[in-house]
Amino acid sequence: MTGQHRIVVLGAGYAGLAAAGRLAKKARGAEITVVDASSRFVERVRLHQQAAGQQIPVWDLRELLTSKKIHFVCARATKIDTEGKRVLLDNAMPLAYDALVYALGSIGDSNGVPGVAEHAYSVSTPADVDRFQPPRGRIVVVGAGSTGIELAAELAESQPDSRILLLSPDEPGAWLSPKARAHIRRTLERLGVEIHSDAKVIEVTDDGVRLADGSLIEAAATVWTAGFAVPDLAARSGIAVDRTGRVLTDPALRSLSHPEIHAAGDSAVVAGPGGRELRMACATALPTGKHAADAVVARLRGAEPGPLRFRYVMQCLSLGRHDAVVQLLRADDAPARIVLTGRTGAWVKERIVRGAGWTARH
Ligand SMILES: Cc1cc2nc3c(=O)[nH]c(=O)nc-3n(C[C@H](O)[C@H](O)[C@H](O)COP(=O)(O)OP(=O)(O)OC[C@H]3O[C@@H](n4cnc5c(N)ncnc54)[C@H](O)[C@@H]3O)c2cc1C
């Protein structure tokens, strides 16, 4: 390492922080700069808790990073000038790089359903949650993926006087084992959540949602959790992306079009076990962030970076503060038979969330 390499990490979520921390340890002598539009690291996997009125931990990024001798720039990246190897920022001078880690995460997606942008809330990002004040009365949660399930349970537990409806075309947790699915349904019902598992929402209005069968469900608030999108920065900057805008990568997480750029976390397409794309998760963001950093270091040392080796272990869904489902997984993400539930599940889930935050910060 010559000592003059400039490494820029875009995004200080789980992937970006994991990459930056690893670089600070391994790329000694390099100048490492992290850019994020926010000055705080919020544990995104707890946003449903914050939406239900709980205080969640928040860290000051500048403090966190400067203590590791990493520069921090609080700015929004507006373009990557791949020819000039510079990142253009909304409030500061362009940042030059020799290597770039692209880790801009994801945001809520309306899936093109009319009215979502205008009338629905989201819990996808800290800014979304800042806008959401759960009203008393009927709250419709659209989408029964992990975020919708966790949010419905959390709201029902913290606001027993409200009526929480969970709407989706599928059974909540449809991708999990029968035991996990049954526990999710039982627990949501115990908490008073009304489950509509054959409901396809085709429009959100100021008063509620319209379903494909023509019926209307009135709501004091609608929260849309049915899908994630990614920032369009890579696509706008001419970097090879898939149709959703995620950066296409090789097994070492290098951009297919720009080998000096590595991508990790939700905003990257990464091949996992069996060639299946890794799903968007904190559980994939942390190891891909670390691997992107290792690949940058290998390249700067003139070595060929190795492929990411990843296997799934478990998926944890909280069901309020006292219950959860911990689904053990096969290497390729298929559900195994073992499922932890109840207080044991909640204890494991809380440890995993704390551990993920700790890993990102350290
Ligand atoms: C409510 C909720 C619960 C979840 N629970 C779980 C869970 O239990 N387990 C799990 O594995 N996953 C969970 N997830 C998913 C998980 O949070 C994400 O997969 C993970 O945060 C992805 O990490 P990341 O680093 O790729 O992106 P992020 O954590 O989203 O970080 C991206 C960062 O990039 C910054 N950024 C974006 N655009 C710009 C720009 N143009 N310029 C500068 N900065 C920018 C953002 O400010 C952000 O800090 C949950 C998600 C939500 C919303």
Explain the overall architecture.
The chain is of the alpha/beta class and 362 residues long. The chain folds into 2 domains: 6-106 and 230-300, FAD/NAD(P)-binding domain (3-Layer(bba) Sandwich), CATH 3.50.50; 108-227 and 312-361, FAD/NAD(P)-binding domain (3-Layer(bba) Sandwich), CATH 3.50.50.100. It has helices at residues 14-26, 47-51, 61-66, 116-119, 126-131, 146-158, 178-190, 233-236, 282-300, 342-361; strands spanning 6-10, 31-36, 40-42, 58-60, 71-74, 77-81, 86-89, 95-96, 99-102, 107-108, 138-142, 163-167, 194-196, 201-205, 208-211, 216-218, 221-224, 228-229, 247-248, 261-263, 268-269, 314-318, 324-329, 335-341. The strands form 8 sheets. Strands 5-2-1-9-20 form a 5-stranded parallel sheet. Strand 6 (77-81) and strand 7 (86-89) form a beta hairpin. Helix 1 packs parallel to helix 9 (282-300) and helix 1 (14-26) crosses helix 10 (342-361). The longest helix is centred in the C-terminal third of the chain and has 20 residues, at 342-361. The model has no long low-confidence stretch (mean pLDDT 96). Bound molecules: flavin-adenine dinucleotide (FAD). Flavin-adenine dinucleotide is lined by residues 11-16, 35-38, 44-45, 47-48, 76-77, 103-106, 123-124, 146-147, 150, 231, 233, 265-267, 280-283, 285, 316.
